[in-house]
UniProtKB/TrEMBL annotation, chain B:
Its cofactor is (R)-lipoate. Keywords: Acyltransferase, Transferase. Gene3D superfamilies: Chloramphenicol acetyltransferase-like domain, E3-binding domain. Residues 57-94 form the Peripheral subunit-binding (PSBD) domain. GO terms for molecular function: acetyltransferase activity; lipoic acid binding. Residues 1-17 have a biased composition (Low complexity). InterPro entries: 2-oxoacid_DH_actylTfrase (IPR001078), 2-oxoacid_DH_E2_comp (IPR050743), CAT-like_dom_sf (IPR023213), E3-bd_dom_sf (IPR036625), PSBD (IPR004167). This is Peripheral subunit-binding (PSBD) domain-containing protein. One of its GO terms (cellular component) is cytoplasm. Residues 1-58 are annotated as: Disordered.
Length: 333, 441
């Protein structure tokens, strides 16, 4: 394999670069959303895209998410490859009918004759003090609907690789991007054919004592915790599923067989979260016989996210929760 | 209505049925109530057995290994939370169940390093994680594999799990983690070392490569150096020993209350030693003569307390120094003591970490020593020997109650200070330790 040339850029720029490259490559790719054109996106993500691709391909829409998703599903079914942006993931509720009852079903109900190659970009997560209606992580809802793919990148490189793979995928793909990661910097391959396979789980850090499965911002908190624990000789293996549906369980199962101890963490509320599904799948797998401690789920509290920053931090798992979780699994508490 | 009820009875030829039915009709309420009461009584007498009883609490991994090696999981004592049986507990049984150990005394034994040695036994295929994998893959070749002595890497192992008891030998584990003992009390009985030696040590001894013998010469030189220093100290100093008993009950209670909070701030657990270091540093400031060096016929009292505390490592005793302890808050002390201990255990320390002590504390309490008398670490003028925290009946507020007590002894160079200063120093330490909340400020 050739060594890819890398460039340092932010998560936000990596998503823009991925979209821009795909729009240059394929004229069928269009981009629609609220304030993405002239204003450059609520988070400045699509700055300059209007100038390059024009109003026909970068479309400012009215403030109606139902129309955005509905338009995208229709456009996708009739040959385009739309990427649409919700200003906040929380507003997906308004587009749910078009997404769940039309977009996710068409390929199946029309006997495979229709495809819906659309991407839904969903800025999710808490940490910005934006309040309960702008801070949710609703990935579990989307994972529950067969026909949708759900991906969530945690680094700039993953962001670029996944947005490109999502645009090239012939299914509706929900691309969940964490708002607090937008400014995170990292090395990103410059190669415009670089994609990340959807449905592939990554081992972010190898270890032998405890397995942590997590994604989004918590990945970085878990890595911090792992570095802290490494000083005490505890080796934590961190696994990032990246694709939440369809999830590649093999590396997770293998890791649990190796360590016998598992922590699953996400920012979304614990009840009904993706973490419960991961745990259930681990217990159903051959890894069950290798579990040497109860599994720990770290999740957001079952409350609307407060806007007060202190409270906001208190309701989602933090670095110390990982540290104490690991201690608990190793009987140190 | 009546006809419908009566007609089947008329058809029946059995007189018994008629008798029963009529009896029921005659005494419907009272008899039914009685029957119900009896049933209720029975339920009360025989409650549903608790489904948790008689079931071993074991992790799936522990059950798998027990199954593979045909071990009855009920017989294994668990080392996990609330006695949960974990994979490590089962693996330990796998090694020792053939009965190689000659030790069968019902006596409880408290073992120090010997316990580690036994678990590091090369026949213990599970003691080394790499060995374990080999064993599972090539079980036929096990006999030839296991006879090779394995180089012991104590640092690489998880000390905590290695220190857990082997039920067959009936050891009592007595060190929590790798730091100071935090247990309530340990009954110390005879240690049959002879029988233990047969189990493992002799087998590891014969084969030695060159590296090991080199190590050996280095070690003896170190020991020589230590020996010379010890003898010199003993010859040159005029030692008097002062002993006092400290009521540790308050410290114990306080430690329980604050330990979480302190741990969250200092990232280390607070131990009795931290309280003692704090109390010592403060007492030294009040009695600076105890905190002096004796060099070239000069007594030099110090305005700062650099506390050395003896740490037992694998091959030698090291005395790292906590500098300027007099200015530290409790949290700082916990942190410094934890970091220092960590660096010593991981051999990160530099010579500067070992220099400049003005006073030394030696603690053998974790080995069940009640009181002892350490040799002065020259040029210090004194050394504090710390014994075990034990529960004893003591008169407290006019009543005989069980209190946790600890004996400390001050070995003082009589050339540096007289007994009165030493006594005042111990008095100060005792006062602080018995009112430990003052140490937090």
């Amino acid at each position: 394999m050739e060594i890819n040339e890398m460039k340092k850029m932010t998560y936000r720029d990596a998503i823009r670069l991925g979209m821009t490259e795909e729009m240059r490559r394929d004229d069928d790719v269009i981009f629609l959303g609220e304030d993405i054109g002239l204003y450059g996106g609520a988070f400045g993500l699509s700055e300059g895209m209007l100038d390059e691709f024009g109003e026909a391909r970068v479309m400012d829409t009215p403030i109606t998410e139902a129309a955005i998703v509905g338009t995208a599903v229709g456009a996708a079914a009739t040959g385009l490859r739309p990427v649409c942006e919700m200003m906040f993931m929380d507003f997906i509720t308004l587009g749910m009918d078009a997404l769940v009852n039309q977009g996710a079903k068409m390929h199946y109900m029309f006997g495979g004759q229709a495809a819906v190659p659309m991407v839904l970009r969903l800025p999710a997560g808490s940490g910005s003090g934006a309040g309960a209606q702008h801070s949710q992580s609703l990935e579990a809802w989307l994972c529950h609907v067969p026909g949708l793919k759900v991906v969530t990148p945690s680094t700039p490189a993953q962001a670029k690789g996944l947005i490109k793979a999502a645009i090239r995928d012939n299914n509706p793909v929900c691309f969940i991007e964490h708002k607090m990661l937008y400014k995170m910097e990292g090395l990103v391959p410059v190669d415009d054919e670089f994609t990340i396979e959807i449905g592939k789980t990554f081992v972010e850090r190898p270890g032998k004592d405890v397995t942590i499965v997590t994604y989004g911002t918590l990945l970085h908190k878990a890595i911090e915790a792992a570095e802290f624990l490494a000083e005490e000789g505890i080796e934590v293996e961190i696994i990032n599923p990246v694709t939440l549906y369809p999830m590649d369980m093999k590396p997770i199962v293998e890791s649990v067989i190796k360590t016998g101890r598992l922590i699953v963490a996400h920012e979304a509320s614990k009840t009904g979260g993706v973490g419960g599904e991961i745990v259930a799948r681990v217990v159903e797998s051959e890894a069950f016989d290798y579990l040497n401690a109860p599994i720990i789920r770290l999740g957001g509290l079952d409350v609307p996210i407060p806007y007060n920053k202190e409270l906001e931090a208190a309701v989602v798992p933090q670095r110390n929760d990982f540290v104490h979780g690991v201690y608990r699994l190793l009987n140190r508490e | 209505m009546e006809k419908e009820v009566i007609s089947p009875i008329e058809k029946s030829s059995s007189s018994e049925i008629i008798a029963e039915k009529s009896a029921k009709e005659l005494l419907p309420d009272s008899s039914q109530e009685k029957a119900q009461e009896e049933i209720q009584d029975e339920i009360e007498l025989k409650p549903e057995p608790d489904p948790r009883l008689e079931k071993a609490r074991a992790t799936p991994a522990a059950r798998r290994v027990a199954r593979e090696h045909q071990i009855n999981i009920q017989t294994i004592p668990g080392s996990g939370p609330n006695g949960r049986i974990q994979i490590e507990d089962v693996k330990r049984m796998v090694v020792f169940s053939p009965g190689h150990s000659g030790y069968s005394s019902p006596e409880t034994a408290v073992i120090g390093t010997a316990l580690e040695e036994i678990i590091g036994n090369p026949e213990n295929v599970f003691s080394d994680p790499i060995k374990e994998e080999i064993k599972e893959e090539k079980s036929e070749k096990r006999e030839t594999k296991i006879k090779k002595p394995v180089a012991m890497k104590p640092a690489a192992r998880n000390n905590k799990s290695e220190m857990m008891p082997n039920p067959k030998l009936d050891f009592v584990p007595f060190v929590e983690g790798e730091v100071e003992p935090l247990r309530e009390e340990i009954i110390v009985k005879s240690v049959p070392l002879s029988s233990l030696e047969k189990t493992s040590f002799e087998k590891t001894a014969p084969e030695k490569n060159e590296q090991q013998s080199e190590n050996k010469t280095i070690l003896t030189e170190k020991r020589k150096d230590i020996a010379e220093r010890m003898v010199r100290s003993n010859l040159e100093t005029a030692v008097i020993t002062l002993t006092t008993e400290i009521d540790m009950t308050e410290v114990k209670d306080l430690r329980k209350k604050i330990s979480k909070k302190i741990e969250s701030q200092a990232h280390f657990r607070c131990t009795y030693t931290d309280f003692l270091l704090m109390a010592t540093a403060r007492a030294l400031m009040k009695q600076p003569i105890i905190n002096s060096s004796f060099e070239n016929d000069e007594i030099i009292p110090h305005a700062y307390a650099n506390l050395g505390f003896a740490v037992d490592t694998d091959d030698e005793m090291i005395i790292p120094v906590i500098k300027n302890a007099q200015d530290m808050s409790f949290v700082e002390m916990v942190k410094r003591r934890g970091e220092t201990l960590k660096s010593v255990k991981n051999k990160y320390y530099t010579p500067e970490n070992l220099e400049g002590s003005t006073f030394t504390i030696s603690n053998l309490g974790m080995y069940g020593i009640l009181e002892f008398s350490a040799i002065i670490n020259q040029p210090n003028g004194a050394i504090l020997s710390v014994g075990e925290v034990v529960q004893r009946v003591r008169v407290h507020q006019g009543e005989a109650v069980i209190r946790s007590v600890m004996k400390i002894s001050l070995n003082l160079d009589r050339r540096v200070a007289d007994g009165m200063a030493g006594a005042k120093f111990l008095q100060d330490v005792k006062a602080d330790m018995e009112n430990p909340s003052l140490l937090l400020f």
